[in-house]
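INTERNAL AUDIT FORM
Audit reference: QA-55
Scope: verify that the stored structure record matches its stored sequence.
Auditor: D.O.
Record contents follow.
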Amino acid sequence: MYVGIDVGTSVVKAAAFDAEGRQLAVASRPVELSLHGGFVEQDMEEVYGAVVEVLGELTGQVPEPVELAGLTGQGDGVWLVDREGRPVRSALSWMDGRAHELLDQWLADGTFETVFRRTGGAMFPGSPGPLLAWLDRYDPKSLDAASAAVYCKDMVFQRLTGAARATTDVSDASMPFLDPRTRSYDNRVVELLGLTRRRRLLPPVGDPIATASAREGLPSGTRLSNGPYDLPACALGAGVTAPGDGLLIVGTCLAALVATTELDLTGEPAGLYISTDRPGHRLRAMPAMVGTAALDWVLSTTGVTHAEVDDLLASTPPGAHGVRVLPYFAPSGERAPFVEPHLRAELSGVSLETTPADLIRATCEGIGYAARHCLEAAGLTGSLAVCGGGTRSSAWTQLLADVLGRPLRVVEGEVGARGAVLAAAERYGVPLDAGAWTEPTAIVEPDAGRASSYAKGYEEHLGRLKEARGRARG
């Protein structure tokens, strides 16, 4: 069997596949986020322990030899480790907002734009540059004690393999220090962010592969590949590799990705270019801060369960009786397709007659409009695949097709884990039929009438957003 490991922000999963890409079994464990005053952290030992547990459960469910394993996980943030890959302090999540004042400074003095023009990465508070600069100012002892500042999957890879040195791949390194043309760190960017004396913490970049150690998790000697991280892994798992084709991930993070061989460093700085294992091939990524997390908040606030969403969406018409939601709920603001650290969610059109169904539909529509904005900015011209937890709702998936005004290739199952296996197979030279592995489970067509109505709603959304951005800037 082939094993894909996906170390997510709130859930750690491991999935087993056969040689034709059929999903055989999945094991999962939730992991906690600590949120306080804009700080968002994770316990690395809890995360790693969850990986070991799901691998043990999975190999128990499917007692076959593991031919190959691929590892992916959440990107960005800062995971400080010692020489053995063990934590120096709690991990700083990609959702963390503590560095917003630094980002405000860099936005004002031009550093933010200069970095984008060099690397194609628009920094946000939870990206490694701002977080490392914050730590250098306010927690330098942690940086002094660390051997490397890595990403989530890199910590897991080092621990599973017993590697002597932390490494990362080009996808995780893409934000914000990597020059996408040379695929190596841009030392001028390191200097601009005031991190020259911390340069040693950036891990070597490559296509990391190693065999699992005998200690825990995978059988000793299992071939393991580290990366790409979850966004590009999902693109691989959904078959999005041809220039112009795109993927929308409707998960905790709402991510729009479009495959490209172009590199355009002009225009409004936003999103990033994710380098891939294939030189010259990139993903233009617009990963918004909040996707299903926005709906989760509304459901929790209204006391509605996920099982009720489809029926409630059917009980109120498109337009939600005039209720509108700008779905920018993240404590650190928004990062794509624009950067506004102080932008917050807004609800309008609410009255005593508003129902929970109206609020839920308006939230789903608002997320759809945000997705359309991201996909347009990313340059979508070809087909569009969708995956993620949001696609488990058939009604919401239809709503997204209507809002986006295009057919959706729905890819179900553990798409990130699937992509991690395909990346591992490529690195190890193991022949797998990528077409069979990435076959969509359904095609959802938009309704022409609703799509026309939502096209007008989208223009109104952009108008409200422009006003909200103005307020966020004070």
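Auditor finding: record pair retrieved intact. The chain has a mean pLDDT of 95.
Action required: none
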